[in-house]
Write a structure and sequence with these properties.
two-stranded parallel sheet, about 5% strand, mainly alpha, 3-stranded parallel sheet, 5 strands
């Protein structure tokens, strides 16, 4: 009891200090701006298709080349909502690492790491989960969509958005590049950052979305649907590892319409517009430039132009992927080095969070040690 009486004043002083800090921060009219930091993640689901690459990874590389402070994570914990086979997950993680490097992610200029190698992701996820409600989570679009056809819903699927918020907040990211269809997924992270700050003081920035507009590619076989590797028709999407002959065949078999001229009209001619979008993204040309150059060609002839541009754009990526996948030691080294850098940042954030919420056990241990030494 005597030890406890000696410790309680320390805890009370610490609590009063944090309360004063929060009051001071809340009274600031213009708090210092958060340093701009970009964060994004990708699941290790094996090879990427061109929709993943052109809609996300290519944008990651552009942000890196622009000199942004970028952190990219292979989110293997997220891939466990449906328990994977261990060997498959290991293989997919290495393949994803090779793919990102082949697409242009440079470990010297970007922090590239493995989510499960940084335990603070799960730790912050639990803390944030205690700040949200079941009703809030069940109303998220992602949960509704994925659980619609499930008889028994895994808890991981339910908590997935909380872990996603922890991924972002752990590195105090200010900007998250997303596709147009993913904007709603970040609303929980924004809400949790606001809730934590209101209760414990200014700790997390309000992350903003960097929307990559106009690059949501459609299925080659059904342009009414999003391009997806889970589509039962293998000709619906083009994988980065596809050979030139396979790419040519898939583009030739893509669904267009009965009009022969090449025009960009996503609403009335979604199949042709999809091909033009792909062509634009790999060539850097505008849709207007492409349509002018395609005058005099029918859609069948234009498909060959698209296939050629796509093959040439993907060729160096595929060659680099093949080279990287043969050097497992190199890939493991890249991931370990990046994970060490990520852990250093994550540890600072989680220590700050623990102190503010009152579970800073290390401070308590130090105080107990000091009291005993004084005795």
């Amino acid at each position: 009891m005597s030890v406890l009486r000696r410790v309680l004043p320390f805890l009370s002083q610490n609590a009063n200090r944090l309360t004063l800090q929060r009051r001071c921060l809340s009274s600031e009219s213009k708090p210092a701006p958060w340093p701009r930091k970009v964060f994004s993640g990708v699941q290790p689901t094996g090879a990427l298709h061109i929709g993943n690459y052109l809609g996300a990874v290519k944008r990651w590389v552009e942000l890196q080349e622009a000199g942004e402070d970028v952190t990219y994570c292979i989110v293997d914990l997220h891939s466990m909502t449906i328990p994977p086979e261990p060997d498959t997950l290991r293989h997919n993680t290495l393949q994803m690492t090779a793919t990102l490097l082949a697409c242009g992610i440079d470990p010297a200029r970007a922090t590239l790491f493995l989510q499960s190698a940084v335990p603070q992701h799960a730790e912050l996820s639990w803390i944030l989960g205690c700040l949200t409600t079941m009703a809030r989570l069940t109303h998220l679009p992602q949960y509704k969509e994925k659980s619609a056809n499930m008889k028994e819903i895994p808890l991981g699927l339910y908590l997935y958005p909380v872990l996603q918020a922890a991924d972002i907040m752990l590195y105090k990211a200010t900007h998250v590049p997303v596709g147009e269809d993913q904007v709603q997924q970040l609303q929980l992270a924004q809400s949790l950052a606001r809730a934590f700050n209101n209760k414990y003081g200014r700790t997390f920035p309000f992350c903003e979305t960097l929307v990559n507009e106009g690059s949501r590619l459609k299925s080659l076989r059904d342009p009414a649907k999003k391009m997806s590797k889970s589509d039962p028709d293998p000709k619906s999407c083009i994988m980065l590892i596809d050979s030139p002959d396979v790419v040519l065949e898939k583009v030739k078999k893509s669904v267009t319409d009965f009009k022969s001229e090449v025009t960009f009209n996503p609403d009335e001619r979604p199949g042709v517009a999809n091909l033009i979008t792909i062509h634009s993204l790999v060539s850097g040309k505008t849709t207007d430039e492409i349509c002018r150059e395609a005058q005099g060609k029918n859609t069948g002839q234009y498909k060959l132009v698209v296939a050629e541009a796509l093959i040439e754009h993907l060729r160096p990526i595929r060659e680099r992927m093949e080279r990287y996948t043969r050097d497992v030691g190199f890939l493991a080294g890249v991931i370990e080095e990046g994970s060490e850098r990520a852990r250093a940042i994550a540890e600072q954030t989680i220590d700050e969070v623990k102190e503010k919420i009152g579970v800073d056990c290390f401070s308590v241990k130090r105080m107990l040690k000091n009291v005993r030494q004084e005795q």
